[in-house]
Amino acid sequence: MAGTVLPTTKAVETSINPPKDLDAGALFVLKSEGSWLHCGYHLTTSIVAPVLLSLPYAMGLLGWVGGVMWLALASLVSFYSYNLLSLVLEHHAKLGHRYLRFRDMATHILGPGWGRYFVGPLQFGICYGAVIVCSLLGGQSLKFICLLYKPNGSMQLYQFIIMYGVLMLFLAQMPSFHSLRQINLLSLILCLTYSACAAVGSVHVGSTGKAPPMDYSQSDNGANRLFGAFNGISIIATTYASGIIREIQATKAPPVTRKMFKGLCICYTVIIITNFSVGIFGYWAFGNGAQGSILSNFMAGDKTLLPSWFLLMINIFTLTQLAAINLVYLQPTNEVLEGIFADLERDQFSIRNIVPRLIFRSLTVVIGTTIAAMLPFFGDIMALFGAFGFMPLDFILPMIFYNVSFKPSKKSLTFWINTTIVVVSSALAVVGAMSSIRHGS
Question: What is the pTM of this model?
Answer without folding.
Answer: 0.90
